């Protein structure tokens, strides 16, 4: 043990659990086993190759030295922030209080440091993307959850209300991370009715103290229902424009542009013009990463000026959304065929299959060469990494592995 390492930093797992499972799947394959690897978190084509959007790569190759090498402004290129926000909300006139961040992760971390005190708790959904807990822990904070509706169910308003009120009572402020629409890991979005209920609860609790709703937009371009995604964004815009609840968004270029490694993204509060909020965000940037990579910002600006590339990119997004939809349909068909409930994927890279003993079930599946990620009440299946024709194998293995 490195004595220099302070005691509170000595007991972490060697590897991220999902990356570790992926490594196990690779090892199984290397040992000659036939593997169905549904742990992957990036979009793969049916040959198992990483999907890299061609439109984006063409734009990337066209970037000149001065679009790559210089520092971007500390808070990001103002034009980039505007374009990124308008990709989500075309009718807003500007980004509001905003700054560039390294991916959505940077935006999430920065929100913790500006809207909560150390020792406080952020509210999100159960299940949630695992690194939320890591981000909170790294900032001396905790995560509380309220349930994401199950397939065909509606939001449990009473539990959400109690969670919001108890945090407001305990800490005098509330920060909610909401990964909607296209939720990771369930693959479903809130219905319009559920969104209206949640907005009502947030408005009510905002009478008691400051409430921030941070929308974590990671997968919006990969959906079966682009119209429903646009409608959801409009609902959130209405809530933001009212001004009672501070509404903002984490926007990531990782999935939307398949630029996972470029670390592009932003946090923005399009309905705030508060110079103090802007100054706090800029201060966090300077004190955390100084400046974010310039190239992804320059790429988005090129895209905004190039209608042909926009149309080509939209077609690529549609194509890959259809591929994901076909994988989801095939999984639901196989589930129903085995007497299990369908999952009704709407968007994103994942779905969750509810199971009674996720850890043990995941272990039994691994012995069959089927790799999934165990969550507290379910298994996460990466539609992004499997083929549609693998669904029957996955479901048959699952049927046998599930506790009886
Ligand atoms: C729900 C969710 N939020 C945020 C992110 C952040 O990704 P990045 O930091 O690469 O933008 C991810 C990535 O997997 C995610 O699934």
In short:
This protein has 15 helices and twelve strands. It is α/β, with parallel strands linked by helices and 404 residues long. The strands form four sheets. It has a five-stranded mixed beta sheet, sandwiched between helices. Strands 9-12-11 form a three-stranded antiparallel beta sheet. It has a two-stranded parallel sheet with strand order 1-10.
Secondary-structure map:
Blueprint: H1 17-30, E1 36-37, H2 54-62, H3 65-68, H4 78-88, E2 97-100, H5 103-115, E3 121-126, H6 131-138, E4 142-147, H7 157-171, E5 174-178, H8 192-205, E6 211-217, H9 226-242, E7 246-252, H10 253-256, E8 265-269, H11 275-288, H12 294-304, H13 307-337, E9 350-354, H14 358-367, E10 370-371, E11 373-374, E12 378-382, H15 391-401
Parallel strand pairs: 1-10, 3-4, 5-6, 6-7
Antiparallel strand pairs: 2-8, 7-8, 9-12, 11-12
The structure holds pyridoxal-5'-phosphate.
In sequence order, what are the helices and strands, one letter per element?
A: HEHHHEHEHEHEHEHEHEHHHEHEEEH
Tally of distinct domains = 2
CATH architecture of the largest domain: 3-Layer(aba) Sandwich
CATH class of the largest domain: Alpha Beta
Neighbour order of strands in the largest sheet: 2-8-7-6-5
Low-confidence stretches: none
Largest sheet: 5 strands, mixed
Write down the Rg. 21 Å
Ligand catalogue: pyridoxal-5'-phosphate
Distance between the termini: 44 Å
Structure summary, number of beta strands: 12
Beta-strand residue percentage:
5-15%
| General shape | globular
Give the helix tally: 15
Estimate the mean pLDDT confidence.
96
Q: Into which percent range does the helicity of residues fall?
A: 40-55%
Label the structural class. Answer: alpha/beta
CATH topology of the largest domain: Aspartate Aminotransferase, domain 2
């Amino acid at each position: 043990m490195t004595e220099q390492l302070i005691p509170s930093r000595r007991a972490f797992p060697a590897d991220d659990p999902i990356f570790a499972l992926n490594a196990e799947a690779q090892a199984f394959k290397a040992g000659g086993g036939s593997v169905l690897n549904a742990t992957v978190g990036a979009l793969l084509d049916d040959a198992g190759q990483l999907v890299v959007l061609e439109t984006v790569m063409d734009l990337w190759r066209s970037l000149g030295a001065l679009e790559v090498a210089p520092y971007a402004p500390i808070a990001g290129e103002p034009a980039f922030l505007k374009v990124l926000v308008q990709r989500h909300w075309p009718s807003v006139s500007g980004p509001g209080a905003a700054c560039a961040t390294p991916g959505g992760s940077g935006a999430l971390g920065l929100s913790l440091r500006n809207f909560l005190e150390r020792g406080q708790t952020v509210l999100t959904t159960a299940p949630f993307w695992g690194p939320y807990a890591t981000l909170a822990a790294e900032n001396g904070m905790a995560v509380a959850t309220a349930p994401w509706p199950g397939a065909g169910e509606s939001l449990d308003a009473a539990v959400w209300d109690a969670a919001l009120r108890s945090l407001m009572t305990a800490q005098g402020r509330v920060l909610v991370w909401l990964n909607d629409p296209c939720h990771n890991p369930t693959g479903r979005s809130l219905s319009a009715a559920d969104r209206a209920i949640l907005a009502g609860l947030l408005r009510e609790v905002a009478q008691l103290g400051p409430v921030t709703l941070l929308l974590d937009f990671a997968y919006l371009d990969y959906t079966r229902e682009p119209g429903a995604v646009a409608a959801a964004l409009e609902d959130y815009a209405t809530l933001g424009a009212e001004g009672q609840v501070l509404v903002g968004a984490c926007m990531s270029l990782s999935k939307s542009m398949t630029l996972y490694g470029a670390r592009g993204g932003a946090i923005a509060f399009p309905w705030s013009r508060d110079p103090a909020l802007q100054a706090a965000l800029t201060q966090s940037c300077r004190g955390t990463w100084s400046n974010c990579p310039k190239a992804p910002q320059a790429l988005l600006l090129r895209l905004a000026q190039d209608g042909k590339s926009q149309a080509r990119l939209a077609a690529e997004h549609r194509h890959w959304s259809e591929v994901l939809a076909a994988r989801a349909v095939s999984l639901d068909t196989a589930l129903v065929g085995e007497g299990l409930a369908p999952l009704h994927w709407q968007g994103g890279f994942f779905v969750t299959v509810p199971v009674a003993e996720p850890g043990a079930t995941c272990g039994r599946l691994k012995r069959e060469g089927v790799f999934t990620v165990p969550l507290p009440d379910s298994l996460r299946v990466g539609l992004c990494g499997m083929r549609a024709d693998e669904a029957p194998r996955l479901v048959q293995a699952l049927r046998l592995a599930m506790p009886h």
